[in-house]
Design a protein that fits this description.
The protein has 16 helices and 14 strands. The chain is an alpha/beta fold. The chain has two domains: about 160 residues, Aspartate Aminotransferase, domain 1 (Alpha-Beta Complex), CATH 3.90.1150; about 260 residues, Aspartate Aminotransferase, domain 2 (3-Layer(aba) Sandwich), CATH 3.40.640. The chain has a seven-stranded mixed beta sheet, sandwiched between helices. A four-stranded mixed beta sheet has the order 1-2-3-13. The two termini are about 10 Å apart.
């Protein structure tokens, strides 16, 4: 921690008296940050400032929710207008039509759109819709993929000892929480990722019972793990061959890899997609979208998806402004993001090679993570659990706080390059990483 964080420590002690672990999410507490977290007071562009006035280059960016960085002028102006004229009505609004039209334009699979509040809610709705549309109860979910904290998804989503995972042909389901409905995981089929043969086996075992296959385009809850070449297409073809819906969870990858997300980058057209995080640029707004004939099952009397906060007006004003910025000049902004991320990743790889510290830097465009491992690459959840030194990464990330660099202290998460970052930020960050590696503080 930086030497001057007395105010953060004091506020944490206050927080412990009113909140569990001093915060609203365990990921912000001592499990990741040690004795106490830094309390952030304000932010602008690529920089955040804590209560004690310490300044950091932010590479976490609210776990990827801020593709334009902090307090982007377009977002600020849009939200000010929304709040001044009425933040939310729980009634039909013009802005929800406009944002749906933008999504339909940039995402080929989005024939129809429905809004929610978070990625978790969007994924819940997508699974309910798949079950309702197909009349089948089960779905396939992959090891290491995180689709939110809904009971049916909350299994094998975080790192565990490899001895607890079971044989890969028959993975042991590991619930990630107490308090789950005791029947909630009965229809959740857990399968290793990047293994088409494993998917074929479970489809045969549960023939006629599977409503959907849900997957992230990039495994983004275990650092960054890319799909093997042709893997997503293989899933798509297996699903359609067997009367199963293919759901692509773009909560993390949407509006980050390309204007149309992973499905644009990999050239696939899922039956349903979910979006969140980056869509609202810091505001809680999400969406799920897909083929018209499937989405029509949401009509009154079919698959229920109610919600007073659905299509939050303030959130959609932010989403509209963000999407317009990201798609300006046919999405040329993404070329800049990929270029800057390439320089950051190349610099990090060089520094680790020169230092002799065993680590790999895995990325897809502006999404990247440093993984402390002796392996040349991490290809799936089991390799992550077996080979990645998560404690070493945490010490490394916390040491970077001292140098004014803010990355998530969790090795299972990742860093994000945004339009707010600059080549100067990259240079400062690489200098800081080099200093930490040289000092060996971690």
């Amino acid at each position: 921690m930086p030497s001057k964080t007395a105010k953060s420590k004091e506020l944490y002690e206050r927080a412990l008296k009113v909140m569990i672990e001093g915060g609203s999410s365990p990921s912000r507490g001592p499990a990741n940050y040690g004795d106490y977290p830094l309390f952030i007071q304000r932010a602008k562009g690529s920089r955040i400032f804590d209560l004690d006035g310490n300044e950091y280059i932010d590479w976490m960016m609210a776990y990827g929710a801020l593709p334009l960085g902090h307090a982007h002028p377009s977002i600020v102006a849009a939200v000010e207008e929304a709040v001044r004229t009425g933040a939310h009505f729980a009634a039909a609004t013009e802005v929800e039509v406009e944002v749906a039209e933008i999504l339909q334009k940039i995402i080929p699979s989005a024939e129809r759109v429905c809004f929610a509040n978070t990625g978790t809610e969007a994924a819940m709705a997508a699974i309910r819709l798949a079950r309702g549309y197909t009349g089948k109860p089960k779905f396939i979910k992959f090891e290491g993929h995180y689709h939110g904290w809904y009971d049916d998804f909350l299994v094998n989503a975080h790192p565990h000892l490899t001895t607890s995972l079971g044989y890969r042909n028959d993975p042991i389901k590991i619930a990630e929480s107490s308090g789950l409905n005791r029947h909630s995981l009965e229809d959740t089929i857990v399968v290793p990722w990047n293994d088409l043969r494993a998917v074929e086996r479970v489809i045969e075992t549960h023939r006629g019972q599977i409503a959907a296959i849900i997957t992230e385009g990039v495994m983004a809850n275990m650092g960054i793990i890319l799909p093997e070449p042709g893997y997503l297409w293989g899933l798509f073809e297996l699903a359609h061959k067997n009367g199963i819906l293919f759901i692509l969870d773009e909560t993390v990858t949407g509006f980050r890899v390309a204007p149309g997300g992973c499905q644009e980058y990999f050239g696939i057209k899922p039956d349903l997609s979910t979006f969140g995080k980056a869509m609202g640029c810091g505001f809680p707004v999400a969406a799920f979208a897909g083929r018209q004939e499937i989405m029509e099952a949401l009509a009154w009397g079919g698959v229920l998806h109610h919600g007073t906060q659905n299509a939050s007006r303030a959130g959609l004003f932010a989403a509209r402004a963000s999407l317009l910025e990201l798609t300006r000049n046919e999405g040329q902004v993404f070329a800049g993001l990929w270029s800057l991320a390439g320089k950051l990743c190349a610099g990090l790889r060089r520094l680790f090679q020169e230092s002799g510290v065993e680590a790999v830097v895995q990325n897809l465009g502006p999404m990247l993570q440093i993984l402390f491992t002796g392996q040349p690459a991490i290809r799936d959840y089991r390799e992550f659990c077996a080979s990645v030194d998560r404690k070493k990464y945490q010490r490394f990330a916390l040491a970077l706080f001292d140098e004014g660099i803010y990355m998530s202290p969790s090795a299972a998460l990742h860093s994000v390059v945004t339009t707010a970052h600059s080549e100067e930020d990259v240079g400062i960050t690489l200098e800081a990483v080099g200093k930490v590696l040289k000092n060996g503080k971690f």
